[in-house]
Amino acid sequence: MSIDQYAAPWWLPGGQLQTLWPARLSRRWTGEAVRYRRERWLAPDADFVDADWLDAPAGATLLVLFHGLEGSSRSHYAEAFAAYARQQEHSYVVPHFRGCSGELNRGPRAYHSGDFEEIGWILSRLRERHKGPILAIGISLGGNALLRWAEEMGGQASRFVSAVASVSAPLDLAASGRAIGRGFNRQAYTRMFLASMKPKALEKLAQYPGLFDLRAMQAARDLYDFDNVFTAPLHGFRNTEDYWERASALPQLRSIRLPTLLVNARNDPFVPAAILPDQQRVGEYISLWQPDQGGHVGFARGAPPGELSCLPEAVGAWLLAQR
After folding, report:
1. C-alpha 301: how far from its chain's center?
2. By C-alpha distance, which of 255, 213, 270 is closest to 18?
3. d(Cα 258, Cα 101) in Å, to the nearest integer?
4. Which candidate in 73, 75, 140, 162 is catalytic?
5. 50 is annotated as an active-site residue
6. Are residues 164 and 186 in the same domain?
7. Concatenated DSSP letters for 267-317?
8. How many domains does the chain divide into?
């Protein structure tokens, strides 16, 4: 099964609708609602990471999902993958990036699209405690960060996971930053993200007075401005340009040395089709699924309101075949 030939239902035309409708209205599971068990881990810097689990019998395959910008274990895609894991009797965990679990994190940092050190610490911890196969999935921002980890690790990545998959990853952060900062995207998505991110940043400033320029944050009107004031300086980058360049997965994809799946719809409002790589650019370890439709982490199917099992089934089957 491949999502490379995915076609959206007739009633769900265009990349914008294929993005917005599944996130808000499509069914994420059948039967009983997904119920997680939460663990809190102490990070090496004395901060904490909250991980939400679905447990399975000992020795089961573990699916790890890294969520997207301002996502969580309750995002539509996370719950759809949870329902798939439950059906297949796999263990499943969603480790939350700092500040995304419902409680502000302790340290003078948050998370970012190239946060491969955090990915590495999480996967190392999971490898120590889980004896069966581990398969990792990254969604949007989480997908880019997971790819950056695989690039940095090279041939050592297979010590921790058998395979990885990214879905709707913004492989070229500058291109995605420009795309989300104009037109309908600016009015819809930029406003939505900033409505969540700016209050968290202001809470962080209350924790650490002087951490960044309050007036510059209040004046930020797009992700470029926000990253310039907050994300870049808090995480060791000079400015937005430096962050977007160094954190982008696209330039180093040929460094990956374990089975990797890249899923990117060509009508994704955030990820311009023109930047998507071809097979020659990515090398032998990477499989590319680039359907014409699907939007940004959409891929709904069936009659209205649609349901979201298509993506987890396709990506899950590909990952399981790599064990």
Report:
1. 21
2. 270
3. 30
4. 140
5. no
6. no
7. T-SSS-GGG---HHHH-TTEEEE--S--TTTT--BSSTT-B--HHHHHHHH
8. 2
Of 223, 247, 271, at which residue does a domain stop? 247
Domain containing 96 equals 15-172+252-320
Q: Are both 205 and 60 inside the same structural domain?
A: no
232 domain residue, yes or no: yes
> Is the model's pLDDT at 1 over the cut of 60?
no
Q: Please indicate, yes or no, whether residues 200 and 158 belong to a single structural domain of this protein.
A: no
Cα gap 294→296, rounded to integer Å: 7
pLDDT tens-digit map of 138-168: 999 999 999 999 999 999 999 999 999 999 9
Q: Are residues 79 and 27 in the same domain?
A: yes
Quick one: three-class SS letters along 71-88?
A: CCCCCHHHHHHHHHHHHH
Residue pair 165/84 in contact (Cβ under 8 Å)? The answer is no
Residue 9 lies in a domain: no
8 A C-beta contact, residue 163 and residue 91:
no
**Spatial distance between the Cα atoms of 61 and 65, rounded to a whole number of angstroms:** 13
Q: Which amino acid belongs to residue 151?
A: E
User: Does residue 52 have an active-site annotation?
Assistant: no
The active-site residue, picked from 76, 96, 235, 296, is: 296
Q: Which residue has the tokens 């996502």?
A: 71
pLDDT in tens, 38-62: 999 999 999 999 999 999 988 899 9
Active-site entry in 235, 268, 287, 309: 268
The answer to whether the pTM exceeds 0.90 is: yes
Same domain, 215 and 66: no
Clarify whether residues 35 and 122 are in a common domain.
yes
**Domain end (from 199, 228, 247):** 247
Active site residue 140: yes
Kindly state whether residues 262 and 140 are assigned to the same domain: yes
Nearest to 166 by CA among 143, 141, 148: 143
